[in-house]
Each structure stands twice: as structure tokens, then as C-alpha cells.
Design a protein that fits this description.
The protein contains five helices and four strands. It is of the alpha+beta class.
């Protein structure tokens, strides 16, 4: 995840440098020609800074976040856990997806829980775990793996 943001920042900085070089002005030449008036480089620098800030403060929508283990998805794309995981990916704020570990030999079901757009990542993880464990309690199920765990959070 850090690499993705570094790439965006690096791309923004390179775009700013490209704008400078495209006009045929170097930083030293513009300083010498303008006699202390550095309008263009200052504006370009401001543009680069705002682009970098926008890239790093962007939405979390579309991001898988920190994946602790890959979630097991059922074969039906309309199942509740598949829909919940897609909603987790689409959420723009701090969110978490908790699920049971799946053993093909013993477990015939997958229980999951999510918390979308929480105030913090930690709060999202706590609520997603509670939601998943509430599903186990509600349906009076026991899994071979022992319960729910956070699969992914952002």
C-alpha cells in the first residue's frame, strides 16, 4: 500500500519537472532572467505539492487495504459474504472484513462480518470481529478453525 502512494507522489513530482522542462526553462535560468521574480517555478512547485497532497489524502475506495489472509469466497457471487467483501472494497473510509477460516474437509459454511466507514481502522476491525462472532452465535455454529479473524482492513 505504501508503494502505491509513493508511486503517485513520484509521478506527481516527475510531472512537475516535466512541466518545467517542457517550457524550456530551467530553474537557474528562470531565476537569472527574472531578477528575483520566480513566478513560474513557484506556481509549478505549488501545483506539485497540491497534487502530491491530493494523491496521498485520496479515498480508500477500491483498495484492498492490509490483507492478513485471503478471504475464501463462496461459489455464488450473490452470497452475503461475497456481497459484503465487494462492499468492503468499494468503501471509501476505514473499513474491515472479518471471516471464519475455511476448511473444505470440516466446514461447510463461511461466516463473515464487516464494518464500513468507521472512524478508525482499529474501530472497524473491532466491529467487524464482533459482527462475525455474532453470526457464529446466532446460528449456533462451531468451526474447526476456532472462530473469526480479520481478513483485511484499511
Amino acid at each position: 500500500m505504501v508503494r502505491k502512494y509513493c508511486r503517485k507522489s513520484a509521478a506527481s513530482i516527475l510531472a512537475g519537472l516535466l512541466m518545467l522542462s517542457a517550457t524550456g526553462m530551467s530553474m537557474a535560468k528562470s531565476l537569472a532572467d527574472r531578477k528575483g521574480h520566480v513566478r513560474f517555478p513557484v506556481l509549478t512547485g505549488l501545483l506539485v505539492v497540491t497534487t502530491v497532497a491530493a494523491a496521498t489524502a485520496g479515498s480508500l475506495a477500491g483498495s484492498k487495504g492490509d490483507v492478513h489472509f485471503p478471504p475464501t469466497m463462496g461459489s455464488d457471487p450473490k452470497s452475503e459474504c461475497n456481497v459484503a467483501y465487494k462492499a468492503y472494497i468499494a468503501a471509501g473510509g476505514h473499513s474491515a472484513y472479518a471471516t471464519t477460516f475455511y476448511s473444505r474437509v470440516v466446514d461447510l459454511y463461511i461466516i463473515c462480518g464487516t464494518k464500513l466507514n468507521a472512524p478508525s481502522q482499529k474501530a472497524a476491525e473491532e466491529m467487524a470481529l464482533r459482527n462475525c462472532q455474532a453470526g457464529l452465535t446466532r446460528w449456533k455454529l462451531k468451526t474447526a478453525s476456532g472462530g473469526c479473524a480479520i481478513s483485511a482492513s484499511k
